[in-house]
Amino acid sequence: MTASEPVRVVILGGGTAGWMTAAALAKLLPGQADIHLVESEEIGIVGVGEATLPHLREFIRRLGLDEMEFMRRTRATFKLGIDFVDFGAIGERYIHPFGAYGTDIAGVGFHHYWLRMKAAEHVPPIGDFSLPIVAARAGRFAPIPDAGDFLDSSYSYAYQFDATRMAPMLRAFAEAHGVRRSEGKVVGVDRDGESGDVAALNTDRGETITGDLFVDCSGFRALLIGETLDSPWEDWSEWLPCDRAAALPCTAPGGPIEPYTRATAMPAGWRWRIPLQHRVGNGYVYSSAHLSDDEAAEAILAAVEGESLAEPRMLRFRAGRRKRSWSHNVVAVGLASGFLEPLESTSIYLVQAAILQLIELFPIGEIENADRDEFNRLIDYEYDRIRDFLILHYHASTRDDSTFWDQVRHMPIPDSLADKIALFRRAGRIERYSHGLFFEPSWIAVMIGQGVIPEGRDQRADAVDPRELSAALDRLRGQIASEVRRLPGHREALARLERR
Question: How far apart, in whole angstroms, are the C-alpha atoms of residue 291 and residue 453?
C-alpha cells in the first residue's frame, strides 16, 4: 500500500454498523478507499428497534441523505428524550431531555438559580423549564426552525426507527457509491507471518478477499478483533450487571404517539418502550443472576400494551469494551468493540463515533502507531464516560424492593463517577468537558431526577433580587408552555412528513 493508491478496506459484517461504516467511508473518503463488505444473509442482525441520540441527524446530513426520506423508509418517529420511570424511587419519574434547562445568566448555569429558589420557596419542577420535556409530556413536536429565538435553539431531537429497515437503505446508498459486497460466511482468516496483520478473509463460497485495513463489524462474535487478534476485553459487569434482554414487538395502539422513549425500572433491571410509526418495540433488560429467562419472557409479555407480534427474542451480552479497538490493521466498530446496555440509546452513537474517528485518522500509506493510539484513546474516552453515566442511573436510587436494586445501590463505583456525584452533591457543579457524550443538562437531569439534590450552589446566583428571579422564572415557564401549545401533535407532525 502506497500513499498514491486507495486503501483496500474490507468490512466484515453488514447490519447497522457495517453499512454505516461502508456508506460513510465511500461518501466521505472518495478515491481514498476501495471498500469491500462481506456478510452472510444467514446471520441476522441484533437490531430490535432502535432509539437514537441527536448525533445521528448530523451523520445523515453529512452523507447527504434526505432526513424525511430516511424517516419514511425506516418508519421512524421523533424523539425528544427518555422518560425514566421508577428509577430513583417507585412512583417517581423524570425525562432526560435533548436540550437545556432555561438559559445561563452571567455565566452561571440555570439550575443554580432554580436551586436557589427551591431552597427559599416552592418552585415548579426543573423539567417545567425545559422545552423538550414540556413538549414530550404534551405529545407535541415540530422540527427546529432555521432561525428562531433562544427557546428554538434550546432543544434537539433524535429518531426512533426500525433497525431492520436502516441497513438495506444504507446498503443501496453505499453500493451506489462504489462499495462492493460479497455474500458468504468467513471460514478462515489469513495473517501475515511477519507482522501478524490480517491479510485475507476466506468465505464458504470459496472467495479469498484481501485488504490493507479490516473493519470488524461482526457483532458480539468479534471474529477479527477478538477471535483472531485476541484483543483483551475489559469486563464491566461488576458495575453494569444486566447481561440479558427479552425483546418483543407489539402492535401500535391508536391515539397519540409519544415523542420519547420510555425506560421503566423493573425488579431485576428495566424495560424499554420505543414507539415507531407501525409498531412498538419493547424489551426487558435484566440480570440473569436475579431473574431467569422464562421469568423475563413472562414479564415482558405481561407488560406490552398491544398485541404481541412475535415470541420474546432472548439476547445475551456482557458490558465492557476492548482494551484496544484498533489492533494491528483491524478496527472494531459496534458490538465487536464493546457493549453498553441500551439504557441511554448509545449503541448507534458509538458506531458513529468510531466511524468518524477512523475517517479523521484514516491511513495514508502505512498504518501509523500514533493513529492507532489516538483512535483507541478517543474511543476509550467515549466508552468510559458513557459507562459512568449509565452506572449513575442504578447507583443513585433509594429502591430497596429487590436484591438487584440493593446490589446496585450499594455497589462500589468507579472513582471517576464518585467524584462527579460528590461535586454535584456539594455545590451543584458538573465537570465540564468538550469531548465525549452527555454534557451538563444530561447529568443534571439524572442527578436531580433521581434525588441527588445539591447541598450548595454557585453563590453568584444569590446576586439577583429574589423577586426579580421569581418573576423571571414565571415568565420563562409561561413562554415554554405557550410555545408548546403552538406545536402540532406528534402524530400530526408525522402526517405532515408523509405529505411532503
Answer: 32
